[in-house]
Design a protein that fits this description.
475 residues, alpha/beta, 16 helices, 14 strands, binds pyridoxal-5'-phosphate
């Protein structure tokens, strides 16, 4: 599908040395971090695949943009340059900058969601769902079933199941659904795209019931590239054209510019409805900052605007996703269980298959993250039962079908040789997988627990038990 010549359309102008650690150093570091890779010091990491969020390399133009920062409290020229860029590349009319994606999620959730509302979406995202809940809403997953099966190679696993969506609308009533949440691409499904055919059908259905679509456009250009590569009728369209078409089918968007737009910090809310914009512009003053800076410096707004224009270039996306595919294909050839098709922002290891002897309440993906770090200094992220949190009503763990370890690739940061090192390290852990034991949670924060939870290694792999019974067990 993707041509082999994904070689980078840029050259390296500045380098950042990384720490080459020893295994004994890493063993100590991961123990001190409570076996949670989020709690490691970045200094102790060799290749950092924790996230692609805010970790990409800015271009010389973006760095130059920082020097053009107009740090006026109000009406900074960089705001107008961002607004113009968003109008041009995404087509949304009104823009409210926020410090990052979740700032925008907070504002749109508070404006549109009332107590008891239901928000259907193509799989949850951690911060998005939490803000929907904090606003009194309930998220309902209406993604196609294929998305929950890591081995299913359906190319558009980000698609909405139209039947599930319409059944839900009929069940709860359109007036209880403020909007359908559409993510491009679907992070929690393994970085899977949604097709334009599906989005058009969702638009038609929501129009029939008078329901809005709010777009989590964090990786919209990556999604557009996949549409160009595999959806019928789009081979001759540019990524930029496809991005515009996707956005035109939705009513507004939240953006974490730390992904596609390659800035270290930044985000925005964009809408086409003036009244919603007016409310958002008022709310942002309370939570983020004045509506022309939204918690960011003028220079951040400029770097974001330039990053957006770079993100929609075909050759950039080709190299970006080409590198991820290079890694994924190599791992697949070695027999490592990964989510297929390969995602756009990373390769997701299937921890249930990698460590089949570890029950889900012994956190297989979390365990794998700790093992990979100890093996190689590579830091990855759990996307499984720890990330899924607990059921609000029963207090039990949510047990997602997908128990994944995400090897996320920052944009323009690592080389092909780094990809080869990653393959080698994963294979080494795979070879000794049978000797790996699980973890038990020793500290659990109330919100988004995966960020700060702490764990201990268990001595024996034990049969499935509820975490609540831990105190009774000799582990
Ligand atoms: C990162 C992300 C967010 C939240 O954005 P932040 O900038 O981290 O607050 C929302 N949705 C998706 C799909 C993301 O990947």
């Amino acid at each position: 599908m993707i041509k082999n010549t994904w070689a980078e359309p840029y050259k390296i102008k500045m380098v950042e040395p990384v720490f080459m650690s020893t295994e004994s150093h890493r063993k100590k570091a991961i123990e001190e971090a409570g076996f949670n890779t989020f709690l490691l010091k970045s200094e102790d990491v060799y290749i950092d695949l924790l996230t692609d969020s805010g970790t990409s390399a800015m271009s010389d133009r973006q760095w130059a943009g920082l020097m053009l920062g107009d740090e006026a409290y109000a009406g900074s020229r960089n705001f107008y340059s961002l607004e113009e860029t968003i109008n041009k590349y995404y087509g949304y009319k009104y823009v409210v900058p926020t410090h990052q994606g979740r700032g925008a999620e907070h504002i749109i959730s508070q404006i549109l969601i009332s107590e008891g509302d239901v928000i259907p979406g193509n799989m949850y995202f951690t911060t998005t769902r939490l803000h929907q809940q904090l606003a009194g809403g309930k998220f309902v997953d209406v993604i196609i079933d294929e998305a929950h099966d890591p081995e299913n190679i359906f190319p558009f696993k980000g698609n909405i199941d139209l039947e599930k969506l319409e059944d839900l609308i009929k069940e709860v009533g359109a007036e209880r659904i403020p909007y359908v949440a559409i993510a491009t691409t679907v992070n929690m499904a393994g970085g899977q795209p949604l097709s334009l055919a599906n989005l058009k059908a969702v638009r038609e259905l929501t129009d029939k019931y008078g329901i809005k679509i709010i777009h989590d456009m964090t990786r919209v250009a990556e999604n557009a590239f996949m549409i160009q590569q595999i959806e019928e009728g789009y081979a001759d369209k540019s990524v930029a054209e496809i991005v515009l078409e996707i956005c035109s089918l939705t009513d507004g968007a939240t953006m974490s510019a730390k992904k596609d737009a390659m800035v270290n910090i930044g985000g925005f809310l964009a809408v086409n409805d003036y009244d919603i914009f007016d409310q958002a512009r008022n709310m942002v003053v309370v939570y983020e900052g004045l509506h022309t800076y939204g918690g960011l410096a003028g220079r951040d707004l400029e770097a974001m605007a330039i990053g957006i224009s770079e993100s929609v270039r075909d050759e950039h996306m080709h190299a970006r996703i080409g590198q991820v595919y290079y890694l994924g294909k190599k791992l697949e050839k070695k027999g490592i269980p990964i989510v297929l098709p390969i995602g756009t922002h990373g390769v997701f290891l299937d921890a249930k298959k990698f460590l089949p002897h570890i029950p889900q309440d012994r956190f297989p993906a979390q365990t794998l993250a700790a093992e990979l770090y100890t093996e190689s200094g590579i830091r990855a992220m759990e996307r499984g039962v720890v990330s899924a949190g607990r059921n609000k009503e029963t207090g039990e763990h949510n047990y997602p079908d997908l128990e994944l370890l995400r090897l996320t690739i920052p944009r323009r940061v690592y080389t092909q040789a780094h990809m080869d090192v990653i393959v080698e390290a994963v294979c080494n852990v795979f070879e000794r997988r049978e000797s790996i034991k699980g973890l038990k949670m020793t500290y659990e924060p109330k919100y988004l627990r995966f960020f700060q939870a702490r764990f201990e290694q268990v001595k024996h792999t034990i049969p499935e038990v509820s975490l609540k019974q831990d105190a009774l067990l000799e582990v």
